[in-house]
Amino acid sequence: GQQVMQIPQYQHVQEGEDFTTYCNSSTTLSNIQWYKQRPGGHPVFLIQLVKSGEVKKQKRLTFQFGEAKKNSSLHITATQTTDVGTYFCAAPNAGGTSYGKLTFGQGTILTVHP
Amino acid sequence: KAGVTQTPRYLIKTRGQQVTLSCSPISGHRSVSWYQQTPGQGLQFLFEYFSETQRNKGNFPGRFSGRQFSNSRSEMNVSTLELGDSALYLCASSPLSTGRNTEAFFGQGTRLTVV
Q: Testing the interface with A: which of B103, B105, B110 to mutate, by most A Cβ within 10 A?
């Protein structure tokens, strides 16, 4: 079945440092989504990328979708303690119907030291 | 607009018992998906319902089942509970009227502990 690999598994940074997490798929994706889950919370949608080479920004967060639509990254500039949580990439089901199924990467757990 | 509501929030069950979890989607959302989240396996898709029909199913044993009612509320049931079923069960809703993936709105989850 479809797999989405995400690295790194953990990232510890000092407040103010940058952070990047990467997602890779063996198959071409129709789109990719990013979610954030705060400790003890539930996943919250951040963004969806659809076009090859697409770059989107949300304040200090920059999201990229690779040219081949097989990889994606999330970069946070100058991390803050409020950025703490687990960041997931998620891809719709490959082939056939894509109803409701998202395949999630393993997530990157970000801790920020003040 | 109210978010996705899952009940109960916490549950402790004994091995061999069965459990039913409930999910009320955002008003107007007709698609409801269920996910199991564990530290070892991450977020894994269980199944998806749209207009009372199961359209997609993940790789879970038949002990895991679900249904959706005409008001889009959904329930999932796990029978003959095993210790390994301990997890956070998340429900997500989306409009998905055209079959294209759109963002999923997650509920706060039900934390199931099997002892």
A: B103
User: What are the DSSP E strand ranges found in chain B?
Assistant: 5-7, 10-13, 19-24, 31-38, 42-50, 53-57, 64-68, 74-78, 87-94, 105-106, 110-114
Cβ pairs bridging A and B (under 8 Å): 71
* Angle at the Cα of A19 from the Cα atoms of A14 and A20, rounded to 5 degrees: 160
Pick from A76, A74, A88: which is nearest to A112 by CA?
A: A76
Cβ contact, residue pair B55, A97, below 8 Å: yes
pLDDT digits (tens, 9 = 90+) for B50-107: 989 998 899 999 999 999 999 999 999 999 999 999 999 999 998 865 445 578 999 9
Handedness of CA B84, B85, B86, B91 (dihedral sign): positive
